Amino acid sequence: MRKQKHRNVLPCFGITFGFTTAYIGLIVLLPLAFLVLRTTSLTWQEFAKIVVSPQVAASYKLTLGASFLAAVINAIFGFIVAWSLVRYKFPCRRLIDAIVDLPFAMPTAVSGIALTAVCAPNGWIGGITKSFGLKIAYTQLGVLVALTFIGLPFVIRTLQPTLEDIDKEIEEAAESLGATKFQIFTRIILPSLLPSLATGFTLAFARAIGEYGSVVFISGNIAYKTEITPLLIVAKLEAFDYAGATAISLMLLLMSFVLMLIINSLQFYGQKFK
Predict the structure, then answer these.
(1) What pLDDT shows up at residue 146?
(2) Is residue 144 part of a domain?
């Protein structure tokens, strides 16, 4: 029996593939290639001196540490929010669901100014925490708050489709067979959510690493304490130190590339064992 050839909706593979390759090359690969090429003007000694200097190393520590912790917080509370939005019906649910996207829609500078106004010592939240001896704005805690704010939608929007696809009849069948709610969650629900949860965590982590606008206002930009890596890049550009800026940018690019590789691997294995 002759096997019927599968026809794609979009014909002409050569044209579509060529257009895709050219588009990605112009929009993504060309600027990145220029970044790498610009860095080659430095010797290895000069490159190492820039990227591992004490001030830059301190910024790496703050940027990566705060980004990782913010992603962990978002993974926990983002799961709770996504679960509530999908599994429960309550007043203003659609409004809350729309509010989740605000960090996506708002300019990062607006987010930074709003967070600073609220968390400053004379702000609503900052005034309350100040009475307990806790300062948020212009500290590393302020950086964490800003990165948590901008990363939350990534976890929620990644988890929601997976939660909606989980068949509730399987949970009911497990319950009828004597499984406890804890067993249903750990053995049925959680394994299905882990790939999406890990992907949302990694997306939030990667987004936080490159964040600038919402952090620069609330951090105070104190060298060795609250200075993030993207701020150093901007500072070097303003000083016309393009080689130094591209060297630090290349380090962030490598970090982002590793994270994107992890995301693609998680998505691949998630689809493979689904």
Answers:
(1) 93
(2) yes
Do 31 and 166 share a domain, yes or no?
A: no
pTM for the whole structure = 0.83
Q: Given phi > 0 = left and psi -120 to 50 = alpha, else beta, which region is 10?
A: beta
Which has the closest alpha carbon to 155: 57, 74, 255? 74
Q: Judge whether residue 145 has pLDDT over 50.
A: yes
210 pLDDT more than 50:
yes
Residues 30 and 51 in one domain: no
Q: Are residues 199 and 76 in the same domain?
A: yes
34 and 150 together in one domain: no
Rama region for 92: left / alpha / beta (φ>0; ψ in -120 to 50; rest)? left
- The pLDDT of 65-74, averaged and rounded, is 93
Instruction: Kindly tell me the number of DSSP H helices and DSSP E strands found in the chain.
Output: 15, 0
pLDDT at 267 over 70: no
Give the 3-state secondary structure percentages of the chain, helix then strand then coil, rounded to 5. 75, 0, 25
Phi, psi of 91, deg, nearest 5 = -60, 145
SS3 state at 240 = coil
